[in-house]
Write a structure and sequence with these properties.
Structural class: alpha+beta
Number of strands: 5
Helix content: 25-40%
Strand order of the largest sheet: 2-3-1-4-5
Largest sheet: 5 strands, antiparallel
Distance between the termini: 25 Å
Shape: elongated
Oligomer: single chain
Order of helices and strands: EHHHEEHEE
Radius of gyration: 17 Å
Length: 163
């Protein structure tokens, strides 16, 4: 279990001690997609969904999710985010979410970016489920991270493996 940092020497789960790490600028970018019926996507694009501005509400929900990540994931450190940007792009049968999170800190913000994307997509599902219960959330993944001791990591476009 040496390479699994959230377990101690005896295999018990614990919160990693980041106190000795230097503060550095850290950035993470994640994305995901929600697939839906084209009529649902058209309603979202037109902004005439009866529940209101689906994309605007999903954007705010994703930002709020990033801010609450430490409360949602048991061993994740709460961090003082300096930036959360959430882009939502509509297509013919989907909405793609991309979140960028930044911090000046001792631990990364990968989980915050992934949480922002997930909560934004779940919000879209929640707001549109009355007209399209068959929506599918897909391909939520980390695209890149920068900063800290391990430096930069960028996902390959096709496989999701590191470059």
């Amino acid at each position: 279990m040496d390479d699994l940092t959230h377990f101690d020497a005896s295999g018990k789960a614990h919160m990693v001690n980041v106190g000795g790490k230097p503060v550095s600028h850290r950035v993470a970018v994640a994305e995901g997609c929600i697939r839906m019926h084209p009529d649902t996507a058209a309603r979202i694009q037109a902004g005439d969904h009866r529940k209101g501005d689906v994309l605007g509400i999903a954007r705010v929900a994703g930002i709020m999710g990033a801010k609450r990540t430490g409360d949602l994931i048991p061993l994740c450190h709460p961090v003082g985010l300096t930036r959360v940007a959430l882009e939502l792009e509509t297509g013919e049968d989907h909405v793609r979410a991309r979140a960028t999170c930044e911090v000046q800190g001792q631990t990364g913000v990968e989980m915050e970016a992934l949480t922002a994307v997930s909560v934004a997509l779940l919000t879209i599902y929640d707001m549109c489920k009355a007209v399209d219960r068959g929506m599918r959330i897909e391909d939520v993944r980390l695209l890149e991270k920068h900063g800290g001791r391990s430096g930069s990591w960028i996902a390959e476009v096709e496989t999701g493996e590191s470059q």
